[in-house]
Amino acid sequence: MMTSRFASVRWKAWLVILGGVLIHITLGSRYTFGNLTSYITSYLRERTPSEGIRYKDTTSIFLLLITCYGATVPLGGVLDERVGPRLVSITGCWLASLGVFLTYFSIQDSFYSVLLTYGLIFGIGSGIAYIPALVCAMKWMPEKKGLVNGLITGGHGIAAVIWNPIETEYINPDNLSPNSSLKEEPTEKYFAEAAVLDRVPSCFLILGITFACIQFFGVLLLFDPPIDEPKSKEPSQEDEKHLTDADGGEPLQIGGEYNTFAVQEGDSDKEMDTEEERDLVDEKWTGLDIPPFEVYTETSFWILWSTHLITVLGIVFIMALYKAYGQTMINDDYFLSLTGSISAVFNGGGRIFWGCMADKFSYKGSTLAMCGSMIVFLLTLDVVSRSGGQYAYLVWICLINISMSGTFSLIPTATARAFGAKHVGANYGLVYSSQIITGPLGALLATTLTDRIGWFGMFILLATFYLGAFIITLLFNVKTRKGENI
After folding, report:
1. Which of 28, 20, 63 is nearest to 343 (CA)?
2. Which of 182, 80, 112, 143 is nearest to 426 (CA)?
3. What pLDDT is recorded for position 50?
4. CA geometry: angle at 74 spanning 72 and 75, to 5°?
5. Which of 304, 306, 348 is nearest to 465 (CA)?
6. Residue 236 has pLDDT above 60, yes or no
7. What angle is formed at CA 176 by the lines to CA 172 and CA 343, rounded to 5 degrees?
8. Is-contact 50 114, C-beta < 8 A?
9. How far is residue 4's CA from residue 265's CA, in Å, rounded to a whole number?
10. pLDDT tens for residues 101-148?
11. Is the alpha carbon torsion for 362, 365, 366, 368 positive or negative?
12. Are 8 and 221 spatial neighbours (Cβ–Cβ below 8 Å)?
């Protein structure tokens, strides 16, 4: 019966989502850099010729990782269209794990060697592996793109829940506090205890091997659904002229939205198939499938690109420096690591929440709400943390995480709905390429402004970034064929 076949389809879809979550849990380990940076920087200061290095310098490792991510995500999207999700995913995943593994050797050499392994190699591999799982899962559940993106990137977000405590328990099992500080910046603290530093290199060895094993099982669960020949004609040139045209009428269900599953023989089966598969149609789709070599001519593409650039720039600062900021008032390494883990739960849950918001309401409204909440939380973080103590700091970091996480589920969903599911891998890769700029710009701001304007000044700057994203999003006016916001 068709009903059982339909149920089988759903079961397979959730299997693919599980594979994507496993992959992204390892790729999301980059978000533990805010926890690792105190150990990495302290080790480099004490055990290598880089004795003058500071947190603002090692932030460049994370920013290089982000830059390489942005540069190679488009490559992953293009390769996914040509060779499928499994080969692309395992290549990128194991390259990323190799970068982590090699950091065992590089951290014992120099800061620049760590830039090469944890920044460059880890970043390139992660970027290649980022998109295939998202695209594969959206093919199975096209009507729930927001939920799918939220669940898989939620794995990215909750990675710190898993890896932060493992890293801290392994490197600093006795919960020793940083015992070294700078004369010119007494609140900037580092570890000098041999009991902590001795364990830093081998942590990367263990992480690299563990990631590779988890990634192998995740990739095994990725497989594309069977695809029919198109049942409807391509849209006319007039249809493709403007994404914001809204003339009433039904959406043009093309480009694979209706054509995901094969129809069996028999009139009754076909009728049931039509009714059940109608539920698999994304009603928020524009009805267009715009290829990568044309998408850059759309104003909406550049709005998404700019929004991604601005919001991720703020995310990079929070994820890389939340612990360094916390150390200025909290003298408990376990608590700061716990903050990273708990906030990661909100980060992962936030991606699912914002993805569901996009499915129920619209990309524009959801993004405006995300940016508005970030502005409020950033402007109040310093005063709340210093007046309310460590638990107030924990609450605000969690609220910031649940707010900022929306970027990674809202924008891929908007990309698929605005420009079509057919080329979503390559198109979202182009949107994600904004991160090529995020890294260098973030490094410049971190190294030149942190000392000059202080922590509160940095939070004001980040809030200004989100205000810019809020204003840009107001200009996003992509409609479905029924004239509603996507």
Report:
1. 28
2. 80
3. 79
4. 65
5. 306
6. no
7. 65
8. no
9. 15
10. 999 999 999 999 999 999 999 999 999 999 999 999 998 888 888 889
11. positive
12. no
Q: Which of 319, 314, 341, 344 has its CA nearest to residue 59?
A: 319
Query: What residues contact residue 104 under an 8 Å CB cut-off, 6+ apart?
Result: 201, 202, 204, 205, 208
Give the count of alpha carbons within 13 A of 192, CB side only.
6
- Region 223-242 average pLDDT: 53
Confidence of residue 257 (pLDDT cuts 50, 70, 90): very low
Residue-averaged pLDDT of the chain: 84
Mean pLDDT of 60-67: 87
Amino acid at 270: K
Q: What is the pLDDT of residues 435-466, one digit of tens each?
A: 888 877 776 776 677 778 888 998 999 999 99
The predicted pLDDT at position 259 comes to 37
Inter-CA distances, 481 with 2, 240, 245, 417, 422, Å: 30, 11, 7, 11, 18
- CA 226 to chain CA centroid, Å, is 28
The answer to whether residue 218 scores a pLDDT higher than 70 is yes
Residue 60's Cβ-side half-sphere holds a number of Cα atoms within 13 Å equal to 16
Task: Judge whether 99 and 106 are in contact, CB under 8 Å.
Answer: no
Distance (Å, rounded) from C-alpha 353 to C-alpha 347? Answer: 10
The span from the CA of 398 to the CA of 245, in Å, is: 40
Domains and CATH numbers, the chain: 7-226+287-474 (1.20.1250.20)
b/e map 387-402, b = 16+ CB within 10 Å: eeebeebbbbbbbbbb
